[in-house]
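User:
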Amino acid sequence: MGGSPEVDAAAPGRPGRVHRNLPAAALVEHAARRGEGLLTDLGAFAALTGSRTGRSPKDKFTVRDGAAAGQVDWATNRAMDPAAFARLRDLVRAYLQNRELYTFDGYAGADPRHRIRLRVVTERAWHALFARCLFLRPAPDELAGFEPDWTVLHAADFHADPARDGTRSEAVVALSFTDRLVLVGGTHYAGEIKKAIFTALNFLLPQQGVFPMHCSANLGPDGDTALFFGLSGTGKTTLSADPGRRLIGDDEHGWGDDGVFNLEGGCYAKTIKLSAEGEPQIWNALRFGCVLENVPVDEATRRPDFLSHRYTENTRAAYPVDFIPNCERSGRGGHPRNVFFLTCDAFGVLPPLARLTPDQAVEYFLCGYTAKVAGTEAGVTEPTPEFSTCFAKPFLPLPPKRYAGMLREKLDRHGCPVWLVNTGWTGGPYGVGRRMALPHTRALLTAVLTGQLADVPFGTDPVFGLAVPARCPGVPDGVLHPRAAWADPAAYDRQAAKLAALFRAEAAKYA
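Assistant: Predicted structure:
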């Protein structure tokens, strides 16, 4: 397979040498030989993405034709004319001609009944290694005669021309549901590859009765599944990597008739301020076969500097999920017993834990409140309040109420409680207060998952109407009640009233 010049039907015509499904070791060798990055003392390969160190959601387009034309929510998705897409496709194919290419064949979806066969074609060896980390890797005998359902053409150094191509900038991510093709150009940020496929699944899975979710998931000792919804930077990867529970996946899942299943085969963890003491499971996963993205590396010692934000706050690591020692290798779990909505509250007024009613759960799901964390998207340099519908606004082709209806049906059918968890600020807003302590958040989650709050009384937050526990083992009472954590209670009241008004305005859109 490795180094074969044979061209796949879905690959561009007349390429240079095509390396198909190389193992991780060979991809690292190629990436190092080509000067794509550095091999670190941890064994991980470190690469830089240049000026784009996060996703570019304003440069993402969906082709308006076929089934997509009548189903996609065009109020929130940028449309591309089919003829414009065809021209862009031909330009990308022409760009890739006569170049050394790397392909990865794999799956998205751990449930065989709801998976797609996927091919990624890229001009960089490290991007192929990223795809190998993030998607499900077939057994060798499954690669014979492999025919993809979807193809990603990733041309990192192809620059679109807005005047010629109808794009917003030189970067473009374009999806065609008719051609089952994704074009990614003008950006080296590898996250665009995985999120484009997640977008496609958010269109395809509801048609199969599967609820697609931007969440992590894990399993307890007795097989209880927990889900952690949230945007990048809210703690999905960190909190689901719990030594006492088995990790199903850290970012994208489907919830079908038989339970939950991972859509991916790897993890994409934020690494800023990562330490062996604070997040040992993630730290130990950063070894050979892993990709570090935009992490500064000392060229003399080859040591990564996880404290540095020299290139971006959004430093990342991509690694196969089985690099986590207690992962659930099947990628599947039963119906959830607890659902957590993670929010990074930049106002510093939401409690660290609150229980939601079913109506509140649907409302908070539709609002998807958090803060955009620095570096997650291009141009974002500090946390900014953000309402991201269903915790996944940039990846939702269908109207938000379609996903909210699927959530409500699942919660009602399985009687699953929903908890709001603030991993953001306490004692004041961003710039004044402090980030919620990770040990306190872990203690709150443990209390929920082990039933320690079953006999604890709950009070009602007077501003947000949330049910807040009176106490929790391992968490100071002053942390549980955010107003008490502020030095100036009147300042808290003003900030809380401001956020509550924003919530009301956002919820009114879906009334």
